[in-house]
Amino acid sequence: MGRGVRTAEQREAWSHRTAVVFIPPAEAWPPVQAIRRTHDRQFQRWMPHVTLLYPFAPRGELPQYLPALATACAVLPPFEASLEAFHTVRHRGGRSTLWLAPEPRVAFVWLQQALQEAAPAYAHTSRFSGGFTPHLSVGQTGHAEEEALLIQLRAEWAPLTFPVAEVQVIAREGDRPFEVVQSLPLGSDTSD
Question: Model confidence over 65-97: pLDDT tens digits?
Fold first, then answer.
């Protein structure tokens, strides 16, 4: 079966109402949220985050994945990250997604890879032609407005730096926003 083609049974095994993400600390939110409030149609649904696994397991199945995810996180050291550069990805229909690139990219790639190895059925975020691209979405715009908006955002942006010390499993019910179900600390393995 080709890459990206799923059977009905496999489609039922994941949910767009759950995800494994990194959520920046609350003190880093204000400048990100100021942009999202104006430009992100999903502002109410999602908190600022870097998607690591999405879609993920149905909510009722989350407990069976938590031990493996916690183990994967425990062996990875915490690290410092920054949000410095804006990028876009163009979609069909004349729309683009605006996003900030979390750095160091390689640390986020290793984190995503470790989580994916702990839950291999949920490799959706690494199936793109370029593999996993860490990003924090901040909005959407039309192709015609994209360049001017990028110039404005880049001129006004002050880079943010913060620790990456845990990842979160999030879920939502109905039309409610996503909420944190479980936080998984990095570097908690003391078996050395």
Answer: 999 999 999 999 999 999 999 999 999 999 999
Torsion of CA 29, 33, 35, 36, to 10 degrees: 130
Strands (E) across 28-158 are located at 50-53, 79-90, 95-103, 136-142
Measured in whole angstroms, the distance separating CA 31 from the mean position of its chain's CA atoms is 18
Structure tokens at 116: 């994916």
- Judged on CB neighbours under 10 Å (0-12, 13-18, 19+), 173 is exposed
Domain ranges of the chain: 15-185
DSSP-derived letter for residue 60 is G
**Tell me, which fold does domain 15-185 have in CATH?**
Cyclic Phosphodiesterase; Chain: A, (3.90.1140)
Give the pair of three-digit tokens for residue 186: 């990095």
